[in-house]
Structures are given as structure tokens and as C-alpha cells.
Give the backbone structure.
Amino acid sequence: MAKRALVTGITGQDGSYLAEFLLAKGYEVFGLVRRSSTVSLERIEHIEDQITILSGDLLDLNSLLTAFEQVQPDEVYNLAAQSFVPTSWTQPVLTGEATGLGVMRVLEALRHVSPKARFYQASSSEMFGKAKGPQSETTPFYPRSPYGVAKVYGHWITVNYRESYGLFAVSGILFNHESPRRGLEFVTRKVSHAVARIKLGLADELRLGNLDARRDWGFAGDYVRAMWLMLQQDEPRDYVVGTGVQHNVRDLVELAFGHVGLDWRSYVSQDDRLLRPADVEDLVADPSKARSELGWEPEVDFEALMRMMVEADLGRLRAEPEGQGSS
Ligand code: NAP
Ligand code: G4F
């Protein structure tokens, strides 16, 4: 019989890649989607007819209990969250409720309805915050945003439920991963989209915040494979997932503009309004445990990732009717 996977956050970047991956593995895929006045299934519309969509929200335990009763999942991937770091300062309560306590609500539903199901929690390198890199599973957390603090709660409640109730619950501490499906507010996509618009004559400037921040950027399609691998192990363990290679925002901008033959200095300016109250300056993974125990390796490097994203945005904008490329 096909395994049944319940994915929260299926409409997000990672949810869409994970759903494709699980369908290719022969899973029956169920996705939890929250109610909204406009339907936002854009990232999964190409596979919508192969997925069962359930209505539910991480803020509402009842809806989670109902979803678990309906699905009786073998595997649960908790990807839903308020995931944009700057919003966590403007909406700290919501972020705490969804990104922090939401994890506990999913674990409660799992514990009561499907205690044998395997559980994956989408933890984040943002939890390391100020801790010096390379960061590994043993690096202490020092979060720098309400989002990072909420993720630390999600991480430890996952560990705690594993130890308290014997659940197969794991936390994947993933470093930044991107794709052409990344939200426009994140820096990689903001840059790839702006580069494409400038190249096509639809814009002539790009304002950014902290150009010195260093990140370990990988491709989302590679990272969903690591999530699945974590749930196929004999023992539930937590893993750091990243490429081990670091670049700063300036490198990213130079590469993206360079790909279309433009000099970034003519278009990019720094806007202090985009600086964060406290930023994370230095993230780079030590992914040796994921490599040795999961056999996981990224297949797309930073240069190929940014080329892919710029090309995708150029393709999308060229396909739009004239004048529509200015969003
Ligand atoms: P994303 O594109 O922002 O997707 C977030 C998903 O969560 C969306 O489907 C969203 O639904 C859903 N969601 C938000 N609040 C919800 C709620 N209250 N109830 C139910 N669903 C809710 O994020 P992503 O990049 O795919 O990331 C997936 C997960 O990995 C997140 O937990 C994120 O924090 C974590 N993470 C991401 C990265 C990264 O670099 N991408 C790195 C480490 C960890 P709507 O479509 O309705 O908004
Ligand atoms: O792309 P970002 O917004 O990603 P950030 O804050 O690292 O968070 C992402 O990765 C986390 C994993 O570490 C996830 F948990 C989280 O959900 C999310 O997916 O910003 C990256 C860096 C920051 O240092 C930021 O200050 O880019 C810098 N930056 C500079 N100018 C900018 C901009 N970021 C954004 N979003 N927009 C700018 O204009």
C-alpha cells in the first residue's frame, strides 16, 4: 500500500518541491492549506489533481486533529510557518503562535491520533544567529529575531516530544535554500527578479539592506530530499543541512547582474530602511553528519542556482503580456 504523507505548508516553496518528490516516490500526498480570501495554490497547480487538499491552520488545534483523523499519516512534514524574518518584528505574536507554538499543536495532534507516524520539523539555521560558523548539530543557538526564537521553541519541543513520548520526531536544521519558486521578498529572488526586470528595461534600480551578510545558499529541490531521508533512518536524529560554502549578499548581486552582462554598481544602492534591528551576519553549515549518515549531497551549487533563478524570472517576464512585468 502507498505510504501516506501529510505536508503542512504545501503551498510554500519547500512544500511544492516536497510534494513533487513524494509523488515521484509513490506516496499518497495530503496538504494542509489555510483559508484565505484568494486561493494561493500557484506553486502546486501543476500537481493539484494528484494531491488531496485539507483545510487547516497551525493556529487551530481542532483543524489539525481533524486532518490527522482523516489522513492517518505514515509521515508528517511540518513546513508551515511565518517564515519571513523581518515580519517577525512587525508581527511577533503571530510568528510565535505559528512558527513556535504551531509545532507543538501539530505534535499534539500527532501524539493523540497517529503516534506511530514519523514527524519532520522544519528548523532553521536562523536559530544559530550570532554563533560562529561553521555551525553543526552541536553549536549552541543564539537567535537574533523573533522568528529565530520561535524556531528554537519548535526545535526543542520536537526533541522534547521525542524524549517524552518516544515519537519518531526529527528536526532538520536547514540553511537558506532558494529556487525560482522562492517568495519575492527573500533576497535571492528579490535580486533575480530585479535583474530580469532591469535587463528587460522594466526597472532601473534595486535597493537592498545589509550587503555584508554571509549565507550558505543551496537549492530547495536538493533540501527536500534531505527531509525525506531523515524520516527513512532507523533512529530519529537531528541534522544540519547546507552546502558548507558561504557567500555574501554582494557576491550574490555581482553574480546575478554579471549573468546578464550588467555591472551591479550602476543599479544597486543600499537603503538603511531595509536593515534589520538585529541581523545574522555569518552562517555556514558543517553538513558532515548529513553527508555521512544520510548520504546527502547537494547537486546544485550557488552559481548554478542564481543562473537558474535569473533565467526563470527572465522567462516569466518575457511570457507576460506587455506592461505586466512591473509587479
Ligand atoms: P514559505 O514559502 O514561506 O511557505 C510557508 C508555508 O506555511 C506556506 O504554505 C504558508 O501558507 C504556510 N503557513 C503559514 N502560516 C500558516 C498557518 N498559520 N497555518 C497553516 N499554514 C501556514 O516557506 P519555505 O521557504 O517553503 O520554508 C518551509 C519551512 O522551512 C518554513 O517553516 C521555514 O520557516 C523553514 N525554513 C526555510 C528555509 C529556507 O531557506 N527556505 C530554511 C530553514 C527553514 P500560505 O501559502 O497560505 O501563506
Ligand atoms: O533572504 P533573506 O530574507 O533570508 P534570511 O533572513 O536568512 O531567512 C531565510 O533563511 C532562514 C534560514 O537561515 C529561514 F529560516 C527563513 O525562513 C528564511 O527562509 O535574507 C538574507 C540576508 C539577510 O542578512 C538580510 O539582511 O540578506 C540580507 N538582505 C540584504 N538586503 C536582504 C536584503 N534580505 C531581504 N529579504 N531583502 C533585502 O533587500
